[in-house]
Amino acid sequence: MSALDLFASAMGAFMFLAIIALPFFPNTGSSPESISEIKKELDAAKEKTAQTEKALESTQKSLDEANKELAEGINKYPIELIITIDISGSMAVPLQRLKDAIKRLTIEVPKVTREFKIGVVAYGGDGKFITVPSVVITKASREGFIQRIDALELLPGETDVPEAVSNAMAMFTPPKNKVRKAYVLIGDVGPYEMIGPQSFDIYAISEVQANRLINAGRGVQVSKNYETEILNSIGSFISSNKLRSVMAMYTGNATRRGDASYNVIALTKPHSIPFFKAVANKGGEDNGHYSEEPSEMLSMLLIAVLAAS
Questions:
Q1: CA 210 to chain centroid
Q2: Which domain holds residue 70?
């Protein structure tokens, strides 16, 4: 009973003290004002979240549209590539580079487009041509096309650039807005080796005379009548096709002293380089490409193909 009395007294004392201290405890309940503020904050947070979600949806939509446009540009539109290459005696290295690049192209490009068509006009000595007709690359057609490419051989002698370019342009299909077309010209001498009343007979210069001019840093005067014809032909190709590009590669720097065609290449270099650059410039800033490195053959061809937009 004593212990019970002690607990009861202690409980009574605690309750008395709690009643005295009650006014000093803060009110932790939710007043109407604080509830209103919290609701405003929640509404603002919800609105901000909704705006963020809307922006994300818009961004995703734009990204989807861009991906769709890119996919259509690569997959939907057929790609057509026509290459003109000089196969005179000095072009052994560039020709082999081209063969290797074409083999790789016919494997990789069909992976990113629904149709890849390619053809080659090879021009050599004495106005001779070897044409590999353009063909749509498939598993069935690729082997035969590559065999014809591998069979290309050098044809030493004077070359006929204008006719080669004309033949290449005739190989393109009629203009279509949704066909991406790329034209490539590869060579080490401009259109200065033709036979005829308007041509300059470079081969009439003796080796002694040629060396004297080369060592003095001088070239020869040549007729440039054919340059205009070629540039106009390429200009017509550019204006007739919406999706197109042009690539020109000058390979004369790969020919060294002692090669049979060195003198001709060295004497015409001051004219040839500006000519090949002018061909590339026909494509414009975004669609014209120029190179002097045969080692870049594959990458330049890929750029020419993908830039046809």
A1: 40
A2: 40-76
